């Protein structure tokens, strides 16, 4: 089983920036430190800096699995859609602070390979973890044809 961790692609590309120039192994460190401090200093409300969350993709023989941790979210506040090769997970969480209620929404889209059967996708939510099961299409197997003797 192969595990792929989807994070924020705009700041974690391993490809060289241009042509033959090699990327320094320290190139992304400054932006990561900036992102860390922005989230730490964004205020005392505890609100997330953006509306994305990490998802894990597990690739098995017959299925691909997408797993997202959504603690504090109820099953009714989760929406999963499969449109044009993208799986989109949307969730909302309500938080009571004193006498007021705050609401946070999260959304994430992941590109899904063509080998998935979109009409057979299922999802389960248990203990704050959403697991989406994406069945793969049956591979076209060659069929052996026997030759009759006359």
Explain how this protein is built:
This protein has one helix and eight strands; from the N terminus they run E-H-E-E-E-E-E-E-E. The protein is mainly beta and 150 residues long. It has a domain at 1-10 and 51-139: Immunoglobulin-like, CATH 2.60.40. Strands 1-2-3-8-7 form a five-stranded antiparallel beta sheet, with no helix packed on it. It has a three-stranded antiparallel beta sheet with strand order 4-5-6, with no helix packed on it.
Concise summary:
The protein is mainly beta and 150 residues long. The protein is built from 1 helix and 8 strands.
Give the helix/strand layout:
Elements: E1 2-6, H1 29-40, E2 55-59, E3 63-69, E4 78-83, E5 86-97, E6 100-111, E7 122-126, E8 129-135
Antiparallel strand pairs: 1-2, 2-3, 3-8, 4-5, 5-6, 7-8
Q: Which whole number gives the mean pLDDT? A: 75
* Overall number of strands: 8
CATH class label of the domain at 1-10 and 51-139: Mainly Beta
Distance between the ends: 49 Å
Overview features:
1 helix, mainly beta, single chain, 150 residues, Immunoglobulin-like, 8 strands, three-stranded antiparallel sheet, 8% helix, five-stranded antiparallel sheet
């Amino acid at each position: 089983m192969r595990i792929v961790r989807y994070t924020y692609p705009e700041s974690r590309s391993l490809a060289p920036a241009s042509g033959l120039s090699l990327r320094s192994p320290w190139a992304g460190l400054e932006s990561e430190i900036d992102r860390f401090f922005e989230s730490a200093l964004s205020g005392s409300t505890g609100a997330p800096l953006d509306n994305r969350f990490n998802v894990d993709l597990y690739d098995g023989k017959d299925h691909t699995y997408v797993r997202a941790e959504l603690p504090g979210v109820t099953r009714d506040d989760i929406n999963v859609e499969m449109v044009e090769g993208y799986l989109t997970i949307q969730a909302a969480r309500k938080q009571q602070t004193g006498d007021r209620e705050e609401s946070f929404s999260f959304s994430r889209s992941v590109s899904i390979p063509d080998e998935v059967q979109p009409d057979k996708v299922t999802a389960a939510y248990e203990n704050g973890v959403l697991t989406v099961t994406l069945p793969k299409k049956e591979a076209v197997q060659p069929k052996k044809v026997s030759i009759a003797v006359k």
